[in-house]
Amino acid sequence: MLDRAAATDKLAELAIYGTNLQPGQILAISTYPDKEELTRAIARKAYQRGARWVDVVTFDHLVKRERVALAPEDSLDFIPPWLRNRLLWLSEEKAARVSLSGPQAPGALAGLDPARAGRDLLPFLPEVGEVVNARTTNWTIMPAPTAPWAQKVYPDAEPEEALDRLWEAIVHVCRLEDDPAAAWDARDAELKAGAQRLTERRFDAIRLHGPGTDLTVGLYPSSVWAAGGAETVDGLHHHPNLPTEETFTTPDHARVDGHVTATMPLELYGSAISGLRVEFAGGRVVRIDADEGAEALRAAAARDDGASRLGELALVDGAGRIGPLGTVFYDTLIDENAASHIALGHAYARGVDDEGDRARINHSTVHIDFMIGSPELEVDGLTRDGGVVPVLRAGRWQLA
Amino acid sequence: MTGDLLEKLADLVVGFGANVQPGQLVGVTSFVGREEATRAVARAAYRRGARYVDVVTFDDRLKRERLLHAPLDSLEYVPPWLPERLRWLSDERAARISFSGPQDPHALDDVPAERAGRDLLPWLAEVGEVVNAQTTNWSAIAVPTGPWAELVHPGLDPAEALVRLSEQVTHVCRLDEDDPVAAWRERMDALTGAAARLNERRFDAIRLHGPGTDLTVGLLPSSTWGAARFQTVDGLVHHPNLPSEEVFTTPDPQRADGVVTMTMPKELYGQLIDGIRIEFESGRAVRIDAERNAEALRAAAAKDDGGSRLGELALVDGHGRIGPLGTVFYDTLLDENAASHLALGSGLSMGLADEDDRRRMNSSAIHVDLMVGSPQLDVDGVTAAGEHVPVLRGGDWQV
Question: Between A and B, how many residue pairs show a Cβ–Cβ distance under 8 A?
Answer without folding.
Answer: 99
